[in-house]
Write a structure and sequence with these properties.
Length: 151
Amino acid sequence: MARIFFSSTETIENFNRLPLTRKEIEDAYWKQYERVVGLLLNPPCPMHMSIEELTQPSSKSRQSTRFANNLRKHPPRPLNPFIMFLKNFDKGYRKFFKGGCSKTISKLTQEEWDKSGSAVHNLFNELADLAKKYHQYKFPDYEYKPIKKER
């Protein structure tokens, strides 16, 4: 059975149009969620984490903790596709191989990411889009403003 992958450019263009109502953000999130669930019915790679674990902000990260304790003004940004792949790969690797340093796991993850096909990349791109939509729903006033360091 051939898999059909959806191009989310139409959704992203509409989603990046500002300002969006809370209802539009919520509808876009659930539409993307259904798309991801469809892709996960027959995943192109082993999945060791749930959709929620991959797309919702971690409560254990340094930035999340600082935000929760009011030491940081802005919430952490949503994860990009590779970092989601890294989290998923790391959890699976540590299930089977106890120990292992993060540096080694990161190198193995990069090799797997490079070897993986477009189906895996598409899955994690869709998950990253879902994370962005969740982030915009949860923090509607958030705007990414990078701070440039002076040299």
